[in-house]
């Protein structure tokens, strides 16, 4: 059996719900060997972000080269990349990489703390998105990328198409977690729209949902699944992870990366 591997390039969450920690747990559950390059070390938990320390770009490069020169991954994802210099480095590395690349364009944590410097936002649009296989913005991130407000499904469709046709991604999923009503995500793959819809789960345990969702997509692309299949598996995985979320932390709690194994059982909130 060929062992598949995936690399996440992102910031950390010592409380384990988001960032690198969420990505590695997700890769493991999807039976993909997980590797990581840390961009920033973040002191955070379910209540919020307390402090952010960026690693020197030269050291981010050392980590990247250490992985790439030894175990070349079958897919890559990026999460929190705060500065222009980090983006330039990663773009330079990934321009030469012929593997699927998923961008979760993390800008602001759910707790409100900025994770991407404002001046870097146009750089992710111009430098990284053209290299990507799939971009997975939430609504505020998509609004920034396309520069129009998104409040309806039609707006989300228009945004996904623009990210592909004008910004140069191969595909885009605009996630509906921040809209009203059902949790409806829209994928545009260059040809058509596909919709992934579930009922909205009434919970505040949503710390790291976007990280986990994009990590599943990365793992599935590493295994050779199509973009559509990868997003479908991602949606199922994150829905169970939210439904069976762990009752941990005093704020926006983490999701449950083994939630899919509890399918059919009552969730903690239903018990
Ligand atoms: N309350 C919820 N119930 C069901 N699905 C949700 C809920 N909140 C988010 N999702 C789903 O979780 C995934 C991540 O979305 P979102 O929370 O918008 O991302 P982000 O963490 O980037 O803000 C999407 O598939 C979205 O539809
Ligand atoms: C290192 C890192 N990456 C991403 C997020 C976003 O997750 P959320 O929006 O759920 O706070 C985060 N809080 N920390």
Automatic annotation (TrEMBL):
Keywords: Kinase, Thiamine biosynthesis, Transferase. InterPro entries: HMP/HMP-P_kinase_dom (IPR004399), PM/HMP-P_kinase-1 (IPR013749), Ribokinase-like (IPR029056). One of its GO terms (molecular function) is phosphomethylpyrimidine kinase activity. The keyword Kinase applies. Residues 13-256 form the Pyridoxamine kinase/Phosphomethylpyrimidine kinase domain. It holds the Pfam family Phos_pyr_kin. It is an enzyme of class 2 (transferase). Pathway: Cofactor biosynthesis; thiamine diphosphate biosynthesis; 4-amino-2-methyl-5-diphosphomethylpyrimidine from 5-amino-1-(5-phospho-D-ribosyl)imidazole: step 2/3; Cofactor biosynthesis; thiamine diphosphate biosynthesis; 4-amino-2-methyl-5-diphosphomethylpyrimidine from 5-amino-1-(5-phospho-D-ribosyl)imidazole: step 3/3. It comes from the Bacteria. CDD domains: HMPP_kinase. Its EC number is 2.7.1.49, 2.7.4.7. It catalyses: 4-amino-2-methyl-5-(phosphooxymethyl)pyrimidine + ATP = 4-amino-2-methyl-5-(diphosphooxymethyl)pyrimidine + ADP; 4-amino-5-hydroxymethyl-2-methylpyrimidine + ATP = 4-amino-2-methyl-5-(phosphooxymethyl)pyrimidine + ADP + H(+). The keyword Transferase applies. NCBIfam families: HMP-P_kinase (TIGR00097). Belongs to the ThiD family. This is Hydroxymethylpyrimidine/phosphomethylpyrimidine kinase. It comes from Gracilibacillus xinjiangensis. The gene is thiD.
């Amino acid at each position: 059996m060929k062992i598949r591997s995936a690399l996440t390039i992102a910031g950390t969450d010592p409380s384990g719900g988001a960032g690198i920690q969420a990505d590695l747990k997700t890769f493991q559950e999807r039976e993909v060997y997980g590797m990581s390059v840390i961009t920033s070390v973040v002191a955070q938990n379910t209540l919020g972000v307390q402090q952010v320390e960026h690693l020197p770009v030269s050291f981010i490069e050392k980590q990247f080269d250490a992985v790439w020169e030894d175990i070349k991954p079958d897919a890559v994802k990026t999460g929190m990349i705060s500065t222009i210099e980090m983006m330039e480095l990663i773009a330079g590395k990934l321009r030469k990489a012929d593997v699927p690349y998923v961008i979760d364009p993390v800008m602001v944590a759910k707790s409100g703390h900025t994770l991407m410097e404002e001046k870097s936002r146009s750089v992710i649009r111009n430098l990284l998105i053209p290299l990507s296989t799939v971009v997975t913005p939430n609504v505020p991130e998509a609004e920034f990328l396309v520069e129009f407000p998104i409040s309806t499904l039609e707006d989300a469709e228009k945004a996904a198409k623009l990210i592909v046709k004008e910004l140069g991604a191969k595909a885009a999923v605009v996630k509906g977690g921040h809209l009203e009503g059902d949790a409806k995500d829209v994928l545009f793959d260059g040809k058509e729209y596909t919709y992934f819809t579930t009922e909205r789960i009434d919970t505040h345990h949503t710390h790291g949902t976007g990280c986990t969702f994009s990590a599943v997509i990365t793992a599935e692309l590493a295994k050779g699944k199509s973009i559509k299949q990868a997003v479908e598996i991602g949606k199922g995985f994150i829905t169970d992870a939210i439904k069976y979320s762990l009752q941990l932390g005093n704020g926006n709690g983490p999701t449950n990366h083994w939630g899919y194994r509890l399918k059919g059982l009552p969730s903690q909130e239903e018990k």
